[in-house]
Amino acid sequence: MWRWVRQQLGFDPPHQSDTRTIYIANRFPLNGLYTPQKFIDNRIISSKYTVWNFVPKNLFEQFRRVANFYFLIIFLVQLMIDTPTSPITSGLPLFFVITVTAIKQGYEDWLRHNSDNEVNGAPVYVVRSGGLVKTRSKNIRVGDIVRVAKDEIFPADLVLLSSDRPDGSCHVTTASLDGETNLKTHVTVPETAVLRTVAKLDTLVAVIECQQPEADLYRFMGRMIITQQMEEIVRPLGPESLLLRGARLKNTKEIFGVAVYTGMETKMALNYKSKSQKRSAVEKSMNTFLIIYLIILISEAIISTILKYTWQTEEKWDEPWYNQKTEHQRNSSKILRFISDFLAFLVLYNFIIPISLYVTVEMQKFLGSFFIGWDLDLYHEESDQKALVNTSDLNEELGQVEYVFTDKTGTLTENEMQFRECSINGIKYQEINGRLVSERPTPDSSDGNLSYLSFSHLNNLPHLTSTSFRTSPENETELIKEHDLFFKAVSLCHTVQISNVQTDGIGDGPWQASLAPPQLEYYASSPDEKALVEAAARIGIVFIGNSEETMEVKILGKLERYRLLHILEFDSDRRRMSVIVQGPSGEKFLFAKGAESSILPACIGGEIEKTRIHVDEFALKGLRTLCIAYRQLTSKEYEVIDRRLFEARTALQQREEKLANAFQFIEKDLILLGATAVEDRLQDKVRETIEALRMAGIKVWVLTGDKRETAVSVSLSCGHFHRTMNILELINQKSDSECAEQLRQLARRITDDHVIQHGLVVDGTSLSLALREHEKLFMDVCRNCSAVLCCRMAPLQKAKVIRLIKISPEKPITLAVGDGANDVSMIQEAHVGIGIMGKEGRQAARNSDYAIARFKFLSKLLFVHGHFYYIRIATLVQYFFYKNVCFITPQFLYQFYCLFSQQTLYDSVYLTLYNICFTSLPILIYSLLEQHIDPHVLQNKPTLYRDISKNRQLSIANFLYWTILGFSHAFIFFYGSYFLMGKDISLLGNGQMFGNWTFGTLVFTVMLITVTVKMALETHFWTWINHFVTWGSIIFYFVFSLFYGGILWPFLGSQDMYFVFFQLLSSGSVWFAIILMVVICLFLDIVKKVFDRHFHPTNTEKAQLTETNSSIKCLDSMCCFSEGETACASVGRMLERVIGRCSPAHVSRLWSASDPFNTNDRSILTLSTMDSSTC
């Protein structure tokens, strides 16, 4: 029982051996000669808490906070000894804070549980007892045979048993795992490939022995032992047999697979990082400030205790006649009395630590997070998706980001390739309005009009003839041949799979306009191949499909069959792929395509130089380029090639080296046909967003699992890399020493070319070597690069890179953006995780802190919401410490006038309600609604983001300013009241003297008005809510005090404040003293604001106070005033300029036609009414 409880709490994971034995369909041997192994169920868990650990785990996390732990100690002290205040004054607020926080965090985790339940409750089909049973995903057990249909996601890690194909193969996409959208082929063992029905699978007797779960997506080792006719057949299993959870079945009707890893042991789940409590930089600063204030508190308590005993060295003060000691007090230990008095002073001054700060911050974060979801500028109409907030604890962290780590596929791009241009025989063509237009005018084209190839849409392809290619009569035959070979090469040199939704009439001759065109669905090994095959189909050379060794192509309506002899697969070293085919008339061709750096050196004919120029032009446009070439083979040449390929592919030793040599021998003496240019369509405004992030001082890193060429191309097209940037590479490193030497060379190049901007490209293998032994050197190179691109990254490698940046000496704030399950680990590792609700599932969105529909929304999320949240909470934190210093310092000063007898200056009701009622609402509303500058200005001027970076608003200098301000105001409250009123006995209307409670109430009244008006001075954006809570708080205090002191309440044991407030307000001198002290306190603050704004303005203050190109006649971004002011209005305007305040009731904007006014902005942030009729 205890072991089970420990496992449920996560302290005692079950024991595991090095390997696992899986009996397919859970058919265990009848003789019982096996050791049963226990496997976890198939539930996915992204939540932090369970029913069992919520209370202890949540309490542990909350009491990590200094203030909560401190008030727990104070509460226990009040329970143990006799203190000046009741234990309720500390215990009740602590209980309230803990409860509210627990409810908030429990609610957020409940939402995560609901999301998990949706995944775990998805319907699946499992083979059990000879039939197909429908069950839920969470009920899949290791050993179950699962059926997955086309376009469904695999619910667990499965070993493929069979498919609807004769060879038992299937095709999957792993975009949500590694970011690659290409089609991957998986195969099974021959003995199970024939078991394509449930009845046949029921006869299978087999065992799988494989390694225990590990996070590497590309590694799997095991074997299958199949029992047939009393004989055991052993077949090896590798990654090509494993279907990963999160991948999607494509171009295959259905498959059957046996579950080998389930639930949190699947490779997808192992690439998640364990969820940890993220804490913002502001919260860490709060804890630091609390420790400083705790030191101040202990110092005050020690000073008071020492002074008390120093004072009591005189006998007349040790035991005055009016306060005789008991016998027990006289005989008690002096050390115990000293400790007791110290603890009593600690309790008396404990309000200097603001426990209500945490509950206010929690409410501000929770309520403020709704503004993100309500912001219609973050709403994506096409997908009907609004921004989601999964955790509100990090709102202010959005304003502190220094590094952005982003995925590529589906995050920066739409994950859709589009054919744009091509070069054929030295002539460049591009698609314009559905036609392939040549840039070279022909002799028969009048007025220099461009000639074109017919390029109609796939859904409306007309009957094409060879005259479509004609450009001039002289070289018609040559051009027809070149174009024909070019598009044949595009249609045949690939590994595209095809799904025929409608096949009627495909091979019946030319398509007629009256006939419905076939719906061809291509699945490609790379998105480029799919775009090229579709482009060839639109030009009239349509790839119909392949059957075994035959490829079918329809050329201008005529069906041709080509025999596929060999495929020379793509690899990153050669950077090209080739096919050898035999045409209908028996001739043999080698068609090759690849990067220009690998194709052009192998060419001996064709328009090489012209094509090279065109490829460079395509690349400058950010297009992905491929060169196409061919070679016609004689019978003797083919015989040699066939023999060399056979020998290389059947070699038992050095097979890869022999294949590389064979490919090198074959792919030579090529004739260049041309080049293609494909665009991976970027999401809207990606380039502008990345540029804005740079202007804001944020470094952008792209982390992708895609190959280098693709990643670099997209980085160039999205503006992550600039054309003028010097691109450095750290790729294909094989050893530590080689990697270190390369890093040193890169560091020297950066030093030598310090004026030039540098970009770094690093692949996953080289990164592993760099992080193993050369972290510091690698980080030095990265810090001196303007942009970094990491390609071929495994999911956990992405998290390691972010971890490396996080723990660097600067300790910058990091943000990760991704859309797939492969991005979850980096999203959870970064300080702030952003999930893109894209096409690759919802794993990233579910495990992120915030989820948005498009990358472009990141700019407003950071520059507007992040800026506002940070300014609001930074002011909230410092204001709380300020008002509590103002509150408790007079209590400390009062002890000098009461012989340190621990007498309280304020009534206990005022002690309890000061933070809860009297001063709580103005700062809460400020922290929700404050806009110190217009949202449009923040978004259009990303440089303003630098003003708040590196936690500048909560710097030690600002903290000391607020603290010193609080102490100075407290001295004015206390000594101003003491000298103005304390010794004058004639100021009360009835002639009575000022008593203890009268004096304390006067100090409290001055203090309350001052701290409330101070909040008003900090407010720039006024709404009716601000006016209501600011002035309403002061009015509420007066009304409450009149009722509290004007009535004898029967439930109160003693009522020291009876009629005190009435007598205090009956004196005109009291009113004068209140006004005088409030003005003196705030005058100092106003003088400082004037000085700072005039001599040392920040960029934000300049944006507030400076007219924008003299066309917006505004005092600041939210305050505009009409012309023709009176002298008094000018004075008022100057005062508004000084304190940076505005009232939306007087907002009137005057815009020029040239000003960038966003008329479609529907942000919920803009709460004030703005007259834009003159825009």
Automatic annotation (TrEMBL):
It comes from Pipistrellus kuhlii (Kuhl's pipistrelle). Its cofactor is Mg(2+). Residues 36-90 form the P-type ATPase N-terminal domain. SUPFAM superfamilies: Calcium ATPase, transduction domain A (SSF81653), Calcium ATPase, transmembrane domain M (SSF81665), HAD-like (SSF56784), Metal cation-transporting ATPase, ATP-binding domain N (SSF81660). The keyword Lyase does not apply. Component of a P4-ATPase flippase complex which consists of a catalytic alpha subunit ATP11B and an accessory beta subunit TMEM30A. Catalytic component of a P4-ATPase flippase complex which catalyzes the hydrolysis of ATP coupled to the transport of aminophospholipids, phosphatidylserines (PS) and phosphatidylethanolamines (PE), from the outer to the inner leaflet of intracellular membranes. May contribute to the maintenance of membrane lipid asymmetry in endosome compartment. Keywords: ATP-binding, Endoplasmic reticulum, Endosome, Golgi apparatus, Lipid transport, Magnesium, Membrane, Metal-binding, Nucleotide-binding, Translocase, Transmembrane, Transmembrane helix, Transport. InterPro entries: ATPase_P-typ_cyto_dom_N, ATPase_P-typ_P_site, ATPase_P-typ_TM_dom_sf, ATPase_P-typ_transduc_dom_A_sf, ATPase_P-type_domA, HAD-like_sf, HAD_sf, P-type_ATPase_IV. It catalyses: ATP + H2O + phospholipidSide 1 = ADP + phosphate + phospholipidSide 2; a 1,2-diacyl-sn-glycero-3-phosphoethanolamine(out) + ATP + H2O = a 1,2-diacyl-sn-glycero-3-phosphoethanolamine(in) + ADP + phosphate + H(+); a 1,2-diacyl-sn-glycero-3-phospho-L-serine(out) + ATP + H2O = a 1,2-diacyl-sn-glycero-3-phospho-L-serine(in) + ADP + phosphate + H(+). Residues 123-234 form the P-type ATPase A domain. The keyword Calcium does not apply. CDD domains: P-type_ATPase_APLT_Dnf-like (cd02073). Residues 845-1098 form the P-type ATPase C-terminal domain. This is Phospholipid-transporting ATPase. The active site is at residue 407. GO terms for biological process: phospholipid translocation. One of its GO terms (molecular function) is ATPase-coupled intramembrane lipid transporter activity. The chain crosses the membrane at residues 66-81, 288-311, 342-361, 861-882, 959-981, 993-1017, 1029-1052, 1058-1084. Its EC number is 7.6.2.1. It is a multi-pass membrane protein. Belongs to the cation transport ATPase (P-type) (TC 3.A.3) family. Type IV subfamily. Mg(2+) binds at residues 407, 409, 819, 823.
